[in-house]
Design brief:
Length: 180
């Protein structure tokens, strides 16, 4: 269902990551803002939803890993394909278990390849569409209630024409990675 990404390897310097200087500066700034917010309101937790858009999957994973490590947190990489069930109600149960465990661990949740989640929900033409939309709605509600950092990694540009309004309302930061 999920796998720890940073396997206990601490990265203590932004120089440890092989990303452009512009992107490193954005990550450094975001890390400082998250840390300041956590110090200001520690009881609420991080409560940030970050979208890492574009670039390569390894760059996005490396950026997520570095942010989490800089904040002293583990990263749980979520494979939505392993969470979504064909049985009604099972997806929500799996998500609840996943979020519960992540909350107990204080982990960052990385939804890698979250393109399907970020895209606009379809019009419900049959019961399958309705259930799919219910699952996405539940996931978005759970992301909003999560007291930690949630990272949605996508290949898309994450613009307003293609993004789901529910995701757009919940994301607190978007970082666009360099192409390639």
């Amino acid at each position: 269902m999920f796998a720890p990404v940073n396997r206990g390897v601490a990265r203590n310097e932004f120089a440890d990551i092989a990303l452009s200087e512009r992107l490193v500066a954005k990550l450094r700034d975001l890390c400082d803002r998250i840390r300041a917010g956590l110090e200001a309101v520690p009881a609420r937790g991080l409560q940030h939803t970050l979208v890492l858009a574009g670039g390569s999957a390894s760059d996005r994973t490396q950026g997520a890993e570095f942010l989490a490590s800089s904040l002293g947190l583990a990263v749980y990489r979520i494979d939505l394909g392993q969470v979504v069930s064909k049985y009604i109600g099972e997806t929500e149960k799996d998500l609840e278990r996943l979020f519960g465990e992540a909350e107990r661990a204080g982990a960052v949740l990385l939804f890698d390849e979250a393109d399907a989640l970020l895209g606009k929900r379809s019009e419900a033409k049959d019961r399958h569409d309705r259930y799919a939309n219910i699952e996405v709605s539940y996931l978005l509600q759970r992301i909003e209630a999560y007291a930690g950092l949630v990272i949605l990694a996508t290949n898309s540009t994450c613009d307003s024409d293609t993004s789901d309004d529910g995701v757009a309302k919940r994301r607190t930061h978007v970082i666009h990675f360099d192409p390639g």
